[in-house]
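Long-time lurker, first post. I've been practising inverse folding by hand and with some scripts of my own, and I keep getting stuck on stretches where the structure tokens seem ambiguous. Below is the full token string for one chain I'm working on. Before anyone asks, I'm not after the true native sequence, just a reasonable design that respects the backbone. If someone could post their per-position residues I'd love to compare against what I wrote down in my notebook.
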């Protein structure tokens, strides 16, 4: 029979957890802002410019999402 134990060498207090929460919220807010800015900029392009980039209007949200969230 196998026995496993997990030992924690670090303890995180409430202040550390709160700081991590704040940092996570700031990162999420920054990514959301990047997504909206990218989407707005691409939405402002004309159909001809989008066609030159090989994009259609239906792809704009997914391209903006990839730019903001996949580029971690």
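-- Answer (accepted) --
I ran through it position by position. Result:
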């Amino acid at each position: 029979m196998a026995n496993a134990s997990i030992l924690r060498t670090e303890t995180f207090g409430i202040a550390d957890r709160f700081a991590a929460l704040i940092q996570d919220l700031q990162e999420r807010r920054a990514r959301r802002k990047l997504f909206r800015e990218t989407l707005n900029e691409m939405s402002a392009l004309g159909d001809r410019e989008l066609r030159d980039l090989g994009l259609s209007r239906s792809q704009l949200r997914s391209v903006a999402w990839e730019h903001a969230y996949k580029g971690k």
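A couple of notes from the structure itself: The chain has a mean pLDDT of 89. Helices lie at 14-43, 47-53, 60-70. Happy to go over any region you disagree with.
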